[in-house]
Every structure is written in structure tokens, then in C-alpha cells.
What does this fold into?
Amino acid sequence: MTRTATTRTATSPTPTTRTATSPAPIRTREDACPGALQTHAAADGGLARVRLPGGALRAGQLAALATAARELGNGSLELTSRGNVQLRGLPAGAEGELGERLAAVGLLPSATHERVRNLVASGLSGRTAGGHLDVRPWVAALDAGLCAEPTLAGLPGRFLATLDDGRGDVSGLGGDVGLVALSPTTVALLLGGDDSGLRTPADGAVALALAACRAFLAERTAQRSTAWRRAELPDGPARVAARLPGGQCRDFGPRLPVPAAPLIGPVGALPQLDGRTALAVLVPLGVLSAAQAELLAAAAEEVEVTPWRTVVVPDQPDAGAAPAMVRAGLVVDPGSPWRRVTACAGRPGCAKSLADVRADAAAAVTAGTLPAGGARQHWVGCERRCGRPQGDVVDVVATPTGYRAEV
It folds into this structure.
């Protein structure tokens, strides 16, 4: 893929053009993606990633994460682009106690499978209008199915499943395996982010998704590959589809285009089908303090963490809880400039970063000096551009002399 970028540096305000290529990676090592028990050694301590299938968190679970962040980590939770949660600043050996705390509240159902539970689902499925069916039962069944099969523990930590109720919000995230409801009764299978053409009744959707996971591992073994994603296997989607049992696909249809995922998720008060209100609360730069997490946990029996670094607080009688959230530093204004800005960890968490990008991005939002006008932008501390959202995003890249905005 070729990309043309317009750049601007601190010393040269005149835009220049840069051409870069980004071929599909060839993996030469096994995936070392962090989990709750296998942490990553960052510059500021251990980093643990807790998978939240479908982004669902009961109030007690969110409160337990807040306590763990305060007592074991740096006092904050990070929301990821897959609707998961990270804890930073963990001392050596803390993963044992963290694992015990997570298991006690149901966030670690399988020590062997905890890194493979990347399941992203349509937001507020079954609660708000727009979908053909409620995918929450799919989330629970697929998560249970993954954890029940020993061989599926071999899935890479970056392997992603998307479960879309038909509203088209998560199918475009490029999942390795995806289900999207075409009607209340018919479901399409996505492979590598594209429609495979395979169709199944809704009650067979989870079984087909699990079969696709097995087929990925079988094809990866056949190719003697260490690929982390289905798209990294040569002719991966087609070869995986060919391995699926014919009886699980009751029908075939024309391959439909998969819409791009929205760059920005909803923020503010959302009407539910039952007349109640859901509050979609934006967490600036995805960093949720322990105190903020406890406030959200006290507001509802359960919440949803989304890939757009928001926390949805459903089943509210009205929007009356919003002012307290705003006072705590959270965002419920759909017009807020915070909706357009994400950032990597930067300093001090990343030794490769050239700047404290979160502090710099926050200062630009506060001062009203964000570059690139009203565009969606991702601030990064180096050329690796970690955490970059998919889609049309301006990269604001730290350099030794300032920041460079690339379109």
C-alpha cells in the first residue's frame, strides 16, 4: 500500500510530501501480546491487558479494576481500540496478585486462554435502534467456546473477532473472524475483514465463528507460519474458508462490501428502545483514573467499554448523571474537540517516545491549538505510531524539533 503524506515540521511551516510504503508484515517471532498474566515490560513498569469480551463490565468488576489500578499500578486504567483495559506501572511480580483479583470477579475465566479473548461487539446491541438482533448472547457463547477448547489457546493475542448486529459499527474494524447480521435470521461470515460469501442461520453463527478460528490455526500450521492475523497468511481468507465444514454454511450469497468502521463513536445521551437513556461518556485520550472508574461503576449495574475509548453507561432514567461525570473530567458533549484526538502512551511509559505526547495533546486541546483543523488525529511519540485508529486519521508525529502533522 502506498501513502502520500503532507508534513509540517516545527522549523519549516511549508508542507512537504512524503511517500511511504507499508507492506503486510512478515512475522519472524511468536506474538508476545500482553495479557493479565503475561505482562509487557514498559519503561514505567509492567503493562497488563485485560480482555473484556464485547466490552461488558459489571459494576463490581469495574470497581475491582479501579482498586487494582490504585493499589498495584499507576492509578489509572487505559482503554484500548479493541474495547479492552490496560493497567500500567505494575511492579515486578504483581501479575500474580492481579490475576487472583481478576479471577475473583470473573474477569479471568481461563488462565490459558485469557490473551485470545478479543471480541468486539456492536455497541448497545439490543438496547438502541439500528441492529437486526441482540449480539450479547453471541459474545457470551463465543467467549465460552474459545475458553472451552485447549487448541484455541494457540490463537495469537492480536486475533480479533467482530460481532455486528447489522448496524455496521464494528465489521469495518478488520477482524480476523466476523459475524454480521443481514436480517434477524441470516448471518454473514467475515474473514480478514471481508465478506466470505458464506451464510448461516443466526442460531449457527457462533459455531461457524469457532470453526473459522480452528481453520485459521490449521492453515497457519500448514503454511508453517507465525502469522498473528488472518490477512498475514498468503491467500489466508480463501484458504481458511476452504477448510470450513460444509454443513455449517447453509447458504451462499453475493459478497457484500463491508462498510468502514466509524472514526468516532457516539458521545452524549442516547435513547434506548425501552425509553431509558444510555450515556456515552468519552474518556480523554483513553486514560480513566481510578476515581473516574469508581464514579462510573456507581452509576449503573453494568457498563460497556467501546473501541472508541468511550464508556457507555446504560439504563439511566435520564441524563441526570452527566453533570457529575463532566465535573470529574469526563466528556459528554458531542461537539467536544476531545472526540477528535487519540494518542499513544508516549513518555514516560515508552522509552522510544520523543515526547510526552499525552500532555502535549491535552495542552493543545485546552489551548484550542490542535493542528490539521477539524480532522481526526492521532498523536504519537515516534514513527511506529502505536495505537493508530483505522481510517482517515491525521498522524501528529513527535520529532526532535517538534511535531509533524501527516495527512
